[in-house]
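Q: I'm writing up a methods section and want to include an example of the input and output format. Could you take the sequence below and give the corresponding predicted structure tokens, formatted cleanly so I can copy it straight into the document?
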Amino acid sequence: MNTTPTGAIPADPDDPAWAEARRTFIGASDAPAVLGLSPWRTPLDVWAEKVGLVNGTGPTLATRLGHELEDLIARIWHEQHPDADVRHARVTVRHPDLPWLAASTDREVGDDGLLECKLVGGRQTDRWDDGPPHYVAVQCQVQLAVTGRRWVDVCSLHAGHGWDHRVHRIDRDDEVLAAMLPRLERFWVEHVVTGVRPDLDGDPEQIRRTLT
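A: Here is the clean output for your methods example:
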């Protein structure tokens, strides 16, 4: 097990070294679970993956569909913003001052923006009635903290009785980051670096599945 932050992160998620590198940082997609905001993962899930007790879940059909449709969702956004300079970075980067924190981005927009592409299943679309759910907003704030950019446009494609897409802008909120980043760092230092298991709160059945 190696949880010591290192500099380079392999660019290809299919590279086994990339999965190993994920143990050396809290990623933007890990942050909602660490903070107890994810509907699907708990802090214990993240801890077990980082310390090497489990390998993490493989790609599900939903995640595979989301990956395959990412280019389509990005094109839908770009059609509405034809003059935007959109680039696919294809890289995971560390925070310049917090090497235990990292993020991948779907697209970079100009010098200040990011584009996050989301496929939302029919059972989840109600969570988006008032905009991106908290777990998406947290992911975006971490992306902004790591990259130094100012905003993320979340373009979400919704499946259900019909199909629609929505675009919501999330601006960098330094007050939110000031409250959130110390909690993430405390989790990293007190649990991942030391190997001390976080409190066993949450769904006991989910905890049992994590540890077995």
